[in-house]
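Deliverable D4.2, example record:
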Amino acid sequence: MDALLETLESILVTGSRVAVVFLELLGGIVVLVGAVAVLRLLLRPHHPNPVTIRLALAQSLKLALEFYLAAEILKTVALRNLEDLSITGLIVGLRIIMTILIHWEERHDRDELAAEQTPKPLGQ
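Output generated by the structure prediction step:
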Protein backbone atom coordinates (compact mmCIF):
# COMPACT_ATOMS: atom_id res chain seq x y z
CA MET A 1 0.00 0.00 0.00
CA ASP A 2 2.85 2.39 0.84
CA ALA A 3 4.48 1.72 -2.52
CA LEU A 4 1.22 2.57 -4.30
CA LEU A 5 0.88 5.83 -2.39
CA GLU A 6 4.49 6.78 -3.15
CA THR A 7 3.94 6.01 -6.84
CA LEU A 8 0.76 8.10 -6.93
CA GLU A 9 2.53 10.96 -5.14
CA SER A 10 5.40 10.77 -7.60
CA ILE A 11 2.98 10.91 -10.54
CA LEU A 12 1.16 13.86 -8.98
CA VAL A 13 4.36 15.82 -8.34
CA THR A 14 5.75 15.08 -11.81
CA GLY A 15 2.45 16.01 -13.46
CA SER A 16 2.24 19.25 -11.52
CA ARG A 17 5.81 20.18 -12.48
CA VAL A 18 5.01 19.61 -16.17
CA ALA A 19 1.84 21.71 -15.81
CA VAL A 20 3.82 24.49 -14.08
CA VAL A 21 6.32 24.65 -16.93
CA PHE A 22 3.48 24.66 -19.47
CA LEU A 23 1.59 27.47 -17.67
CA GLU A 24 4.73 29.57 -17.28
CA LEU A 25 5.50 29.07 -20.96
CA LEU A 26 1.97 30.18 -21.87
CA GLY A 27 2.38 33.27 -19.68
CA GLY A 28 5.63 34.15 -21.42
CA ILE A 29 4.03 33.68 -24.85
CA VAL A 30 1.14 35.95 -23.87
CA VAL A 31 3.56 38.68 -22.76
CA LEU A 32 5.57 38.34 -25.97
CA VAL A 33 2.49 38.41 -28.22
CA GLY A 34 1.09 41.40 -26.32
CA ALA A 35 4.37 43.29 -26.62
CA VAL A 36 4.56 42.59 -30.35
CA ALA A 37 0.95 43.73 -30.81
CA VAL A 38 1.67 46.98 -28.95
CA LEU A 39 4.84 47.49 -30.99
CA ARG A 40 2.80 47.07 -34.19
CA LEU A 41 0.39 49.73 -32.91
CA LEU A 42 3.27 52.08 -32.20
CA LEU A 43 4.83 51.58 -35.63
CA ARG A 44 1.68 52.54 -37.51
CA PRO A 45 1.91 55.92 -39.26
CA HIS A 46 -1.17 57.13 -37.38
CA HIS A 47 -0.99 55.12 -34.19
CA PRO A 48 -3.87 55.29 -31.70
CA ASN A 49 -3.67 57.46 -28.63
CA PRO A 50 -1.46 56.32 -25.74
CA VAL A 51 -4.42 55.25 -23.61
CA THR A 52 -5.44 52.64 -26.20
CA ILE A 53 -1.87 51.35 -26.36
CA ARG A 54 -1.65 51.12 -22.55
CA LEU A 55 -4.96 49.24 -22.48
CA ALA A 56 -3.73 46.70 -25.03
CA LEU A 57 -0.55 46.08 -23.05
CA ALA A 58 -2.41 45.93 -19.72
CA GLN A 59 -4.79 43.28 -21.05
CA SER A 60 -1.97 41.00 -22.16
CA LEU A 61 -0.07 41.50 -18.89
CA LYS A 62 -3.18 40.72 -16.88
CA LEU A 63 -3.77 37.49 -18.80
CA ALA A 64 -0.11 36.49 -18.43
CA LEU A 65 -0.28 37.10 -14.68
CA GLU A 66 -3.26 34.74 -14.47
CA PHE A 67 -1.18 31.97 -16.08
CA TYR A 68 1.74 32.70 -13.73
CA LEU A 69 -0.58 32.70 -10.72
CA ALA A 70 -1.99 29.32 -11.74
CA ALA A 71 1.57 27.99 -12.05
CA GLU A 72 2.45 29.25 -8.57
CA ILE A 73 -0.61 27.58 -7.09
CA LEU A 74 0.34 24.29 -8.75
CA LYS A 75 3.85 24.58 -7.32
CA THR A 76 2.38 24.10 -3.85
CA VAL A 77 1.76 20.43 -4.72
CA ALA A 78 5.49 19.68 -4.56
CA LEU A 79 6.34 21.77 -1.49
CA ARG A 80 7.92 19.92 1.40
CA ASN A 81 8.50 22.52 4.11
CA LEU A 82 7.00 25.65 5.63
CA GLU A 83 9.72 27.95 4.26
CA ASP A 84 8.92 26.97 0.66
CA LEU A 85 5.22 27.40 1.34
CA SER A 86 5.71 30.88 2.82
CA ILE A 87 7.84 31.99 -0.16
CA THR A 88 5.23 30.67 -2.58
CA GLY A 89 2.52 32.43 -0.56
CA LEU A 90 4.39 35.72 -0.84
CA ILE A 91 4.84 35.28 -4.59
CA VAL A 92 1.14 34.50 -5.01
CA GLY A 93 0.27 37.55 -2.90
CA LEU A 94 2.49 39.83 -4.96
CA ARG A 95 1.05 38.53 -8.22
CA ILE A 96 -2.49 39.08 -6.93
CA ILE A 97 -1.58 42.65 -5.98
CA MET A 98 -0.04 43.23 -9.42
CA THR A 99 -3.20 41.87 -11.09
CA ILE A 100 -5.38 44.20 -9.00
CA LEU A 101 -3.19 47.21 -9.82
CA ILE A 102 -3.23 46.43 -13.54
CA HIS A 103 -7.01 46.02 -13.40
CA TRP A 104 -7.36 49.37 -11.59
CA GLU A 105 -5.12 51.11 -14.13
CA GLU A 106 -7.02 49.49 -17.00
CA ARG A 107 -10.35 50.72 -15.60
CA HIS A 108 -8.91 54.22 -15.13
CA ASP A 109 -7.62 54.22 -18.73
CA ARG A 110 -11.00 53.03 -20.06
CA ASP A 111 -12.74 55.85 -18.20
CA GLU A 112 -10.21 58.33 -19.57
CA LEU A 113 -10.71 57.02 -23.12
CA ALA A 114 -14.50 57.18 -22.77
CA ALA A 115 -14.27 60.78 -21.52
CA GLU A 116 -12.14 61.72 -24.54
CA GLN A 117 -14.60 60.14 -26.96
CA THR A 118 -17.75 61.63 -25.37
CA PRO A 119 -18.95 64.58 -27.47
CA LYS A 120 -18.99 67.85 -25.57
CA PRO A 121 -22.00 70.19 -25.68
CA LEU A 122 -21.75 73.05 -28.18
CA GLY A 123 -21.73 75.76 -25.52
CA GLN A 124 -18.38 74.64 -24.02
